[in-house]
Amino acid sequence: MYALSKKVRVEIFTILCGRIASPKEIADELHQGLSRISYHVTILKECRLIVLDNKEPRRGAVEHFYRAESTLTQAEALLDLLGASGRTSAKKRR
């Protein structure tokens, strides 16, 4: 599956399976640049794995918040298939 062919997209998807988050929050958590994370969030959104959940004004801009579109069961099965469950990824980052 193209949408999850990059490790960073799997990490983003894993985060969004567990909670609603903005690209800024994800970038901070993964210690990556915002533009890189935003690019990969766009790919996940275009592939319909995540959806826009909310928009909030922030300092003259609008922060977008996303969540996983799949049910938790589907998401866990997909991540297990890829060998990247949320618990494993979290342990690797620490």
Report on this model:
The chain is α+β, with helices and mostly antiparallel strands and 94 residues long. Helices cover 55% and strands 18% of the residues. It has five helices and two strands, in the order H-H-H-E-E-H-H. Helix 1 (7-18) packs antiparallel against helix 4 (72-82). It is globular. Mean pLDDT is 83; it is low at 86-94.
Distance between the termini: 27 Å
Beta content comes to 15-25%
Secondary structure class reads: alpha+beta
Q: Give the % helix.
A: 55-70%
Q: Give the number of helices.
A: 5
Radius of gyration: 13 Å
Number of strands: 2
* Morphology: globular
As laid out across the biggest beta sheet, the strand order is 1-2
Order of helices and strands: HHHEEHH
Overall pLDDT level: 83
Question: What's this entry about, in short?
Answer:
With 94 residues, this protein is of the alpha+beta class. 55% of the residues lie in helices and 18% in strands.
